[in-house]
Amino acid sequence: MQVNLRKEPRRRDKGSYSLLWKDRRGFSQSVHVEGIEISDSGIALRGSSELLPGCVVYIEARQGTLAGYCAVRNCIRIGTDYRIGLEFDPETRRTLAAALDEDIDYYEYLQISPKAEFATIQRVYKFMAGRLHPDNPETGDPDRFVLLNRAYDVLSNPERRAEYDATYKGHDLKANPIFELSEFVNGIEGETNRRLGILSLLYNRRRTNPEQPGVSMFEIEKRMGFPREYLDFTTWYLKAKEYITMGDNVELTLTAIGVDYVESNASQIPILQKLLTSGPKTTTGPEPAREKARRSHGPPLELGAGESVAGDSSRGPQPDVGQATGASGQPFDTGLK
Prior knowledge:
Thrombin, subunit H, Arc Repressor Mutant, subunit A, six-stranded antiparallel barrel, three-stranded antiparallel sheet, 11 helices
């Protein structure tokens, strides 16, 4: 498979943005626009206002990581709207790249240890590149391919990797102390409770980050404090029951059946309720980079005008009945046995 290096990869963008600039008379103007596609060096937008090529504008995402100055490269009328092409200035590029770096744990994305050697990183990269390359008609994914290249560029360079390791703490995940209890370790009871543990982690992720609900096995291992081989049977069972699925990126995701199970049983299984409310919560990312851009750029221009319902017995298959015990030692049905 040949990699096309002539054109910078672009990815679809559905974000909403505000553009701010000064007109020829020096008055501040603004317009709301919608994203079309974005790359590391620029963005294509759809809006109602015509902008002259060469004009300098300030772009700010309503929700997201993009904020900074850009130059208008083209503006083409399409029907009643305009397609606007912007090129990021160097500082905006750095701000966007830094924000993307902070949002993603590259080690987790590659499913490797933070101590992985270069040979391992290179081997995993080649495998994933073959699957994700846009030229692959079956599994190609331009967005994930761009992220894969960004991760490899950092982790394959000793200096950049050292800098990344020194500043990024996301891969230093802490295990929830609840999983240190004997109820999660010994026998059938421990196996059943480990299933509840995985379901609770995936449920919290899906609720807090519905657009990216997957959780890697690397993160699950860290959150629960168990090695992968200790969880293989657990994940096999949950997949066989169709409570979870595993995608091509080796991330586990909770299904609708799994959501129904968790919500139908949370009030009946004390240890499940405790799992859902204990430990570090899954977050959707750090402080938006637009705040960082404000601090680095200074005030740009004047701003112109311009819970799921709990499941019931009618929703999906009913679980079998099993038993597990909580810290009190009292048995209760889990449906995971």
